[in-house]
Amino acid sequence: MAAAKYHFTQEAPPDALLSDLQTLNKFQDEQFSQLISIVFSFLVEPSKSARMLQQLDEFAEHHGISAGPLKNVVKSLLSVLNGALRRNLTPALLKEDLTNLGVTEERAAYLESQWKSNLAALSRMAMGQTLMVNQLVDMEWKFGVTAASSEVQKVGNTFLQLKLVVNKGDKAENVYMELTLPQFYSFLHEMEKAKSSLEYFT
Fold first, then answer.
1. pLDDT at 198
2. Which among 53, 58, 50, 103 has a CA at the least distance from the CA of 81?
């Protein structure tokens, strides 16, 4: 049997990651939803790592779970979600990866819905981090209209594809992102604020 191919990574995931993710299936529904809430709060605000670790300690104590293995599970899940974010995965592709990794259909569907509802905030965060850490050298964009989608309400929606060229020090790297119009206007507003700040200080 051929090994499953994944969208969040080009490499075969280690056995430990598969084992950790399959542990998600053992949590009770309330525990699972609470844990996923902690994970997504951290993803949206990655600077709050101390808060997440405290929440995980409290979660482990409250439910009588060992904190060490719990943190391994969360670390593995974050590895998958960060890979999905870097590759700009759709909720459906993320769900496909999760089920291939051994997460049950029900749990994968819940994670898919959380990914969908947090995607705008996650995209803004990822873009902000990219521009904060790396010098922006060039930017290209093009508009498109969704002609076909499994979600009927998305047909006819306008979207923007961005190509950012960032300076990584020793080389330039392309970063690709797809934004809805509201996300683009939010991004544009942030860029205008940054431009005003630069003009003020120079």
1. 59
2. 103
